[in-house]
């Protein structure tokens, strides 16, 4: 109804009922179509029914047996088409629909709008908000973020789109030919839930993520001083992905109001005494006895730190305000990978082996072993811990969306770009890597020499950091851990 109001259409218009699942499918297929058009070598594949299902689940959308009917319906409405290889193609009507929502909600474009709905649903499920509170909040946000547009002043295609859309999904649309697909849906959902439940139980047993031992030592020294300052504490915490995660988790899980976005704010809210207790409970990475697991964890710490320095240099060059918020997004970008490595190392090394044996990328291998990708494991637990919405969105794989200057855009896109730049620092680049690097440079809207300068400066910084913490650095392994896929 809010959307209809903004485009000046009466609420009783027949055939305008776009659900979260159907809209999410349309947006995913449309975005994939745009990516395919951008790459000459087509190293990104079209969605199939199964891979689209995986992606939909990974976004956090609750799906059930009606998903097969949703796919049928968006095809019948000529939003998408499916070829003989079960590959999904975005059609013109799909593009118009996505553009229409982007026009109405310009600050919540594409999957950002979906992600907001998903987060609100999660808050209801976790009982942080009542259903009525959530409904009121959604209405308020949509009204404040929405922009009234006059369809008469726009192309006829938008009016046609409104008149033709009909995404109401009757359950009777599911026929016998979809039984196999429903079986896949069930299997994937079970696998995903099993993984998340296993990791959650391990978290209850093992406590928070480990931290770098030297950082832990420094932090205890500072907190024991009578005149310890927030800036001194923040400087150490912001160099340690384990510390950032643990502190934001403790602060935000207890809050029912707006989530805390920065470490500096968290320190102020906690106060000296409570922060002292939290720091004493930190577990050092030295408790990890398996040499391979510890080495991989060290590389994640270094990768996060390198991503931080690239982000910081970029933000300073572009004169970005609120740098700490963007830095935290960059440091936490590989949170899901770190969670799996620490709490489920057997699965982590199975994924690594599968990537090597079958030449699968990280996302495909993790889906096969865990039923869910690393980035979406991070998103799942960040939601459980009540992290700020923008921090959660910074954990996503966003490919190479244009990085602008708004806080929302920077926080969502820059962490991914910074970590991808770390991945390109690992040695000789093949043809595919060069194409990806070129797109990445374009998305950052900078000269390649400046980007390469960022990488080299960050490499100097992370080398110094590794020596300080007595970690033997491995450039190629660091790149492999940073890479998304």
Q: Uncertain spans, ≥5 residues at pLDDT below 50?
A: 11-16, 166-177
Overall residue-averaged pLDDT value? 81
The main sheet orders its strands as 1-2
Per DSSP, the total helix count is: 24
Largest sheet: 2 strands, antiparallel
Q: What's the arrangement of secondary structure elements?
A:
Layout: H1 2-6, H2 20-38, H3 49-59, H4 67-76, E1 80-82, E2 88-90, H5 92-104, H6 111-125, H7 131-145, H8 156-164, H9 179-206, H10 213-223, H11 230-237, H12 241-253, H13 263-281, H14 291-317, H15 323-331, H16 335-343, H17 345-358, H18 362-370, H19 374-384, H20 389-393, H21 407-423, H22 431-444, H23 448-468, H24 475-482
Antiparallel strand pairs: 1-2
Helix pairs in contact: 2-4, 3-9, 5-8, 10-11, 10-13, 11-13, 12-13, 14-15, 14-16, 14-21, 14-23, 14-24, 15-21, 16-17, 16-19, 17-18, 21-22, 21-24
Task: Offer a concise description of the structure.
By secondary structure, the protein is mainly α. It has helices spanning 2-6, 20-38, 49-59, 67-76, 92-104, 111-125, 131-145, 156-164, 179-206, 213-223, 230-237, 241-253, 263-281, 291-317, 323-331, 335-343, 345-358, 362-370, 374-384, 389-393, 407-423, 431-444, 448-468, 475-482, and strands at residues 80-82, 88-90. A two-stranded antiparallel ribbon has the order 1-2.
């Amino acid at each position: 109804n809010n959307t209809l109001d903004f485009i000046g259409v009466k609420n009783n218009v027949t055939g305008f009922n776009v659900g979260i699942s159907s809209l999410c499918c349309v947006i995913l297929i449309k975005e994939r179509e745009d990516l395919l058009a951008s790459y000459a070598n087509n190293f990104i594949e079209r969605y199939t029914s199964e891979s689209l299902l995986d992606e939909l689940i990974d976004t956090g959308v609750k799906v059930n047996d009606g998903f097969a009917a949703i796919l049928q319906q968006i095809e019948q409405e000529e939003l998408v088409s499916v070829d003989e290889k079960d590959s999904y193609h975005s059609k013109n009507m799909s593009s118009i629909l996505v553009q229409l929502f982007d026009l109405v909600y310009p600050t919540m474009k594409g999957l950002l709008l979906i992600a907001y709905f998903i987060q609100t649903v999660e808050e209801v499920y976790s009982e942080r908000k009542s259903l009525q509170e959530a409904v009121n909040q959604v209405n308020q946000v949509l009204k404040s973020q929405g922009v009234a547009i006059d369809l008469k002043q726009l192309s006829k295609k938008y009016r046609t789109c409104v008149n033709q859309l009909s995404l109401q999904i009757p359950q009777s649309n599911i026929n016998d030919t979809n039984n196999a697909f429903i079986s896949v849906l069930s299997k994937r959902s079970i696998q995903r839930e099993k993984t998340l439940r296993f990791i959650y139980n391990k978290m209850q047993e093992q406590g928070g993520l480990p931290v770098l031992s030297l950082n832990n030592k420094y932090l205890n020294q500072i907190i024991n001083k009578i005149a310890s300052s927030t800036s001194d504490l923040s400087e150490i915490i912001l160099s340690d992905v384990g510390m950032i995660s643990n502190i934001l988790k403790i602060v935000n899980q207890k809050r029912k109001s707006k989530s805390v976005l920065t470490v500096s704010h968290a320190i102020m809210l906690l106060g000296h005494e409570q922060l002292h207790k939290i720091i004493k409970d930190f577990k050092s990475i030295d408790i990890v006895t398996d040499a391979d697991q510890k080495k991989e964890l060290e590389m994640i710490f270094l990768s996060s730190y390198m991503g931080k320095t690239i982000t910081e240099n970029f933000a300073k060059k572009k004169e970005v305000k609120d740098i700490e918020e963007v830095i935290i997004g960059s440091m936490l970008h590989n949170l899901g990978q770190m969670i799996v490595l620490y709490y489920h190392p057997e699965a982590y090394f199975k994924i690594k082996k599968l990537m090597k044996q079958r030449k699968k990328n990280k996302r495909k291998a993790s889906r096969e072993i865990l039923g869910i990708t690393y980035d979406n494991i991070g998103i799942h637990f960040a939601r459980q811990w009540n992290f700020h919405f923008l921090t959660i969105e910074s954990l996503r794989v966003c490919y190479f969306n244009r990085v602008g200057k708004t806080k929302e855009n920077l926080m969502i896109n820059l962490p991914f770009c910074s970590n991808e730049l770390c991945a390109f620092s690992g040695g000789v680049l093949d043809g595919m890597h060069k194409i990806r690097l070129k797109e990445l440079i374009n998305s950052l809207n900078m000269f390649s020499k400046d980007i390469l300068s960022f990488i080299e400066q960050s490499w100097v910084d992370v080398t110094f950091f590794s020596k300080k913490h007595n970690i033997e650095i491995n450039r190629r392994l660091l790149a492999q851990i940073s890479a998304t896929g």
